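Postdoc handover notes: sequence design on the structure in folder B. Input tokens:
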């Protein structure tokens, strides 16, 4: 920033005649001594050197009053030399000549401010020098403002660029935060879900295993007291079926945990689904007969498909056992195998039970859902069968759904399973 306000400006008088120079210095010092310092030079060369020196020192050479007629370097040449060193210096020429050549040259090449005829009037000359000082100050101030403006503009641009970078960074960070919030929420939901599942598993273990274990203890007590071999056999049979029930329950719970953790793997083999259905129906024939229920199988051919036999058996057992479990006496259960299309087969398990309400349909494929329909023959009900079925069907790339509308008065429900006949990576066995 410029220091014109702190340093006194300098006016330099140039004339080869010593007497003229002295009187110039005296007059100007008298009138303008407060406003500027007066320096003198006796030749053009000396003046140019002085301006150079003072400028190098950082002094404000503001005005030059230069005689025109001088030996060696004339007034116009001197002013041009000075102008080339520092264009902001305001130049005044003293001339006694009527010739305008020097004046024109100084105007064109040294930006001459004014010329004053010799002999000059003291007050007139000091007035012109004062004006010249004012012009210098103004031009310095203008330069300073322009410089300052340039700096501010530059700083503004820099600030703008910085702000843009900052805004981008803040935007990116905000986005990152939002994303990590979402994934955090997902983890919390998953943990919450896993925790709920664990609580349900524990409550099932404590409740559904406690009863059969209690029954086992009573049966064991009876056995120790019973001497009749027929009764003993009957008690042992009951114990065996209770153990079977507990084992099945534990298997279901283990499957639930494995499915939830995504750890269940399938090992599909080419198998006849019709044969598998027949075997399962044979297993459930006794339970169905006890309720006067009939199980019909309708299958036009063998329906050979790639299935994990152990897991797919669970699917069919759960659906067929549900049909038997929730249907009343003297009803018919029909299992139909059909081709959905050339690559897909469909299994429909139809019963004449109570049907499934719209509300129950929304929950029935989730874990631990015991719904409106109750077992009709005192069978156990844990509420995990259909959830396991759904996941195994999906692991076979298939679909599971139910059609039932008790609201319209229609009887029964039909569960549908559709699976592709071929799975990737099948071992033929
Ligand atoms: N065929 C059906 N007819 C009417 N309701 C059914 C039928 N199948 C299932 N439900 C209802 O859906 C609920 C869930 O069935 P799911 O098979 O998942 O469990 P569950 O049979 O109660 O116990 P388990 O885990 O031993 O299979 C049942 O409690 C029952 O209320
Ligand atoms: Mg069931």
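Designed sequence:
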């Amino acid at each position: 920033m410029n220091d014109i306000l702190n340093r006194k400006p300098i006016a330099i008088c140039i004339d080869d005649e010593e007497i003229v120079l002295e009187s110039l210095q005296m007059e100007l010092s008298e009138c303008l001594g407060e406003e500027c310092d007066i320096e003198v030079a006796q030749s053009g060369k000396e003046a140019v050197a002085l301006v150079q020196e003072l400028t190098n020192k950082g002094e404000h050479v503001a005005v030059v009053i230069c005689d025109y007629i001088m030996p060696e370097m004339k007034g116009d040449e001197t002013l041009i030399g000075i102008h080339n060193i520092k264009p902001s210096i305001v130049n005044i020429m003293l001339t006694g000549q009527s010739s305008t050549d020097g004046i024109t040259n100084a105007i064109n090449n040294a930006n001459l401010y004014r010329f004053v005829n010799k002999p000059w009037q003291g007050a007139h000359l000091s007035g012109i020098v004062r004006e010249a000082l004012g012009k210098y100050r103004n031009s310095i101030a203008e330069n300073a403002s322009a410089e300052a403006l340039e700096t501010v503009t530059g700083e503004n641009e820099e600030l703008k660029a910085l702000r843009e970078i900052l805004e981008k960074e803040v935007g990116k960070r905000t986005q990152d935060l939002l994303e990590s919030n979402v994934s955090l929420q997902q983890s919390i939901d998953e943990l919450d879900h896993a925790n709920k599942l664990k609580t349900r598993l524990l409550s099932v273990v404590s409740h559904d295993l406690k009863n059969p274990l209690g029954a086992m203890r009573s049966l064991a007590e009876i056995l120790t007291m019973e001497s009749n071999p027929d009764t003993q056999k009957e008690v042992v049979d009951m114990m065996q079926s209770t153990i079977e029930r507990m084992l099945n329950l534990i298997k279901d719970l283990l499957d639930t945990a494995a499915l939830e953790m995504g750890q269940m793997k399938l090992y599909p083999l080419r198998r006849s689904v019709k044969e598998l259905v027949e075997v399962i129906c044979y297993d459930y024939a006794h339970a169905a007969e006890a309720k006067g229920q009939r199980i019909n199988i309708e299958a036009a051919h063998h329906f050979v498909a790639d299935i994990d036999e152990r897991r797919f058996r669970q699917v069919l057992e759960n659906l067929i056992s549900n049909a038997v479990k929730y249907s009343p006496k003297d009803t018919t259960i029909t299992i139909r195998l059909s081709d959905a299309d050339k690559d897909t087969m469909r299994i429909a398990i139809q019963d004449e039970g109570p049907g499934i309400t719209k509300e129950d349909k929304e929950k029935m494929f989730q874990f631990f859902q015991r719904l409106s329909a109750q077992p009709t023959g005192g069978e156990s009900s844990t509420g995990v069968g259909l959830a396991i079925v759904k996941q195994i069907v999906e692991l076979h790339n298939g679909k599971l759904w139910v059609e039932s509308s008790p609201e319209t008065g229609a009887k029964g429900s039909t569960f549908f399973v559709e699976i592709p006949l071929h799975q990737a990576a099948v071992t033929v066995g």
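Context for whoever picks this up: The two ends are 94 Å apart (CA to CA). Don't rerun without checking with the PI first.
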